[in-house]
Amino acid sequence: MNKPRVGIPRVDLPADARLDTLAVREGLPPSQYGENAEALYLTSSFVHPDAATAARRFANEEEAFVYSRFSNPTVTMMERRLAALEGTSGCIGTSSGMAAITLLILGLLKSGDHVVCSQSVFGSTIKLFQDFARFGVETSFVSQTDVAAWKAALRPTTRLLFAETPTNPLTEVCDIAALAEVARSGGALLAVDNCFCSPALQQPVKLGADIVIHSGTKYLDGQGRVIAGAVCAPQALIDSQLMPVMRSAGMSLSPFNAWVVLKGMETLAIRMQAQSARALQIAQWLEAQPAVERVHYPGLPSHPQHALAMAQQSGVGGAVLSFTVKGERAGAWAVSDATRICSITSNLGDTKTTLTHPSTTSHGRLSEAQRQAAGILQGTLRLAVGLEDVEDLKNDLHAGLSKIA
Ligand SMILES: *Cc1c(COP(=O)(O)O)cnc(C)c1O
Fold first, then answer.
1. Less crowded by CB within 10 Å, the N or C end of the chain?
2. Closest Cα to atom 2, ligand 1: which residue?
3. How far does the centroid of ligand 1 lie from the alpha carbon of residue 93, in Å?
4. 354 Cβ below 6 A of ligand 1
5. C-alpha span between 332 and 397 (Å, rounded)
């Protein structure tokens, strides 16, 4: 049913307010106390003035905050702000990025339905889609960059195309507009995991995607503090298909984590620009290092989808790059172990630069054959560039690279 959207007020903003303004201002009006910073509402439930009002609110006849498993003012502020940045009419916060994808699957799909997914998406995403085969939802994994392969994988039962761009860790870029066309031709929806670029650089819905998935854990928080996620989608789809699952299954975003992400979004655009600028400098420098066999970075002309990436990502390569060093696993581990600044951790999107060996960590649950298919080699390292001084970061990487050249 269509919820009346009148009970919860909106911030009074000009209709043509631009992204930088929405990133700081969209949310909810302040409470009666007039706080300037957004309030953190740590409460499980909300009190109703009388029994009849409570009944109306539980029946969805009146929009109001009821119970924090599915509605909380701080979470709503985060959802409205992220929806504004992504250009969707709705957004629903989730306890993690993976919970967002789980919510999407449970809300949209049923036994007998078919999904087409890039074979290069986040490792846990591949695992999750494979797990849903037990419930009769089958997934075909196709090449990230081969649009014809996506089209060929369509079946009459295909309901969802799932893409992530650029991918983790090799930064392969897919053509969102072309995949949206394939989805439309097959009567399916296109969902794009927009973790790596964030809406500061790329808005998939503007390119024709229907749904945007986020791990708020990454650039939206931006400082490596919380686990969070979200699905950005048309409000009607959220109301009819996702909210009922949230109410019953409860993969809810905690108000505290929502608040951290909400405040993180205020600096998202300037962080993405600054971290991407550093990433470009490091990528260029790595390409010239004798111990480095290959650098994967969309901002480099050597990247196979460089032109597409520049057109799709506001002319910016993003803050994540990967590189393959000589000496296989031993070479990669030597570079990791010689660093004193970079954090050896699988998270990304932090102001602290993180260095990961994907084949033994984030992608360790895949078979070697699956990793080879995705192009992730034993010598490959992923660097998610933070806000440290670029020269310090180069020196940090050079310590290990100089030993294996
Ligand atoms: C981290 C990540 C996820 C999962 O997010 P969590 O918040 O860790 O559950 C999904 N997709 C991509 C691209 C990611 O980097």
1. N
2. 215
3. 14
4. no
5. 11
Nearest CA to ligand 1 atom 5: 97
Which CATH architecture best describes the domain 268-404? Alpha-Beta Complex (3.90)
Tokens 């339905």 belong to 113
Q: Say whether pLDDT at 5 is over 60.
A: no
Q: Give buried/exposed letters for 50-87 (b at 16+ CB in 10 A, else e).
A: eeeebebbeebebeebbbbebbbbbbbbbbbbbbbbbe
The answer to whether the CB of 218 is under 6 A from ligand 1 is: yes
State how far Cα 161 lies from the chain centre.
16
Cα of 122 vs centre of ligand 1, distance in Å, is 7
Task: DSSP letter for 238, please.
Answer: I
Residue to probe by mutation, ligand 1, list 105, 126, 165, 217, most atoms within 8 Å of CB: 217
Ligand 1 centroid to 124 CA: how many Å? 8
| 208-236 pLDDT tens trace | 999 999 999 999 999 999 999 999 999 99
Alpha-carbon distance values, 390 to 200, 204, 325, 382, 387 (Å): 22, 30, 20, 16, 8
Q: Write the CB contacts of 349 (distance below 8 Å, at least 6 apart in sequence).
A: 195, 217, 218, 219, 220, 221, 222, 224, 319, 384
Ligand 1 and 122: CB distance under 6 A: yes
- What torsion, rounded to 10 degrees, do the Cα atoms 264, 267, 269, 272 define? -80
Domain positions in the chain: 268-404
Sign of CA dihedral 227, 381, 322, 368: negative
Distance separating alpha carbons of residues 102 and 31, to the nearest angstrom: 33
